[in-house]
Amino acid sequence: VELEFLQWLRNRLPLDMRAPLGLSDDAAILQLSGGGRVVATVDMLTEGVDFLLAQDRPQRIGRKALAVNLSDLAAMAARPFAALVALTLPRKGGMELAKQLFEGIIPLAEEFGVALAGGDTNTWDGPLVISVTLLGDVTEHGPLLRSGAKAGDAIVVTGKLGGSRLGHQFDFRPRVREALWLAENSELHAGLDLSDGLALDLWRMCQASNLGAIVEIARVPVSEDAAKWAANVVDGSTPVEHALSDGEDFELLLAMPPRDAERLVNEQPLACGLTIVGEFVSASGAEDGRIWRREADGSRAPLVPRGYEH
Amino acid sequence: VELEFLQWLRNRLPLDMRAPLGLSDDAAILQLSGGGRVVATVDMLTEGVDFLLAQDRPQRIGRKALAVNLSDLAAMAARPFAALVALTLPRKGGMELAKQLFEGIIPLAEEFGVALAGGDTNTWDGPLVISVTLLGDVTEHGPLLRSGAKAGDAIVVTGKLGGSRLGHQFDFRPRVREALWLAENSELHAGLDLSDGLALDLWRMCQASNLGAIVEIARVPVSEDAAKWAANVVDGSTPVEHALSDGEDFELLLAMPPRDAERLVNEQPLACGLTIVGEFVSASGAEDGRIWRREADGSRAPLVPRGYEH
Predict the structure, then answer these.
(1) Integer Cα distance of B39 and B22 in angstroms
(2) What's this model's pTM, rounded to 2 decimal places?
């Protein structure tokens, strides 16, 4: 639904309401009349789609509802400062559930300096719905967009990818500090957070930047959970296929000049690790597909932008 | 649930995350690191609780989801500038429903200069949930709080009250421009928007301001719909009782010096009308209840803070 609907919405909106729609970035950038800019994002999570109360502890659900938004601001190298939490609770046990959700939200908010600035709490005869809006501001290095990648840039990712269903999808650490550090200590051209898998999210960055990309398959950092997941499921996917398209990694995907990327990969200043997984190329060079996979033997094939579609 | 839960939350939050919680105002006021302030509020509306798709047109539901937030910012004399819309749609017909909701949202957003700055669109096998976050900034006259009323202030309301279930609960005009005009052209001490009825909301303003209040019952502006509603329901409530506690009026409740109030009521500069309905008194003067009703014959009785509890 989302893509088709957003296209409709974009065409339907008057021009002056369209500019800051943030359709192509992880959060919207808003200009204040008194100067200064605010970055804002919202995510709504629902029982049965994003979590199962019968299986996932409410604390982890609450934590995740804030964490996915923190990850969106990290993607733009923005500094989060306040969150609003809207809940619709099942009537039975709703109050206890609300407390448990906040037992997951509060420590994460505190860790990232986010004030809980308000919200709305409702009950109904239906399943849990939780929606978090996160506000941030931008540093002097400005917000990082998806559209800024340049041909020749290195494709850099933080952490390791794949197998998030084994727990990482709830327990991931949003890369807010990492993004701010990198924005201050290197030249970043573009960024997003890997929510739907490297293949699909890289394709999105290429679309926004009007570029192609080549991924060196042997360089993709594969998590241990991707290997475990590949060993346990029978669809024949290898660990690296999981790393390419499982989604919910919530790591950073960055475009930066190769010199900066190589320096950082040599120095490894971040505990989560930094890896160059390929390079951006001009779109005209990609004959029958925007993004390519290059195997260890040098052979090249289109990389299908397949991932976790929310 | 809400009040007890918010009390728990207030105690649970670390001190530095507690200040801007906005528990006692209609929206949170956030200080930006680069200077300037942002006002933010969120409301989540759900099928079966706030509306019935079988009965209420989706355009009206979408409009209302934004309008209640506009009313919250009006209560603080803040200037709205951007909204984020999060939806969870029933799987069947979700896309068509989303478009209809936005056909109600877009004209209202345009009218009030609100950019649609992003959102989140999901589907599930459940009923419609719509959550709107609205951001605003404050003028040089600052945000209006609930807590600023002073003993001797006039109690002033815009428009007419009661009977909102006959249509006003969807079609009301948020008093954004009225609030900004009044903030610029008179001395306002406190404000809120009447969402739960004059009796309950006045009691809340008295609580926040540590005051009592006396309402002159004969002066309460009763809407035609309150009279119609009283004629149609058999609970014995008079039109003025409906005006006191039906809720969802979304008019402004203001505290201002009596001289300003009298001047405004004589001049009637606003199309919606302004009425003085009583005065704030010191809390110690209210022996067995914070708020009082005074009838046309001068007799006085406690005014029960009963209203529409969301």
Answers:
(1) 10
(2) 0.93
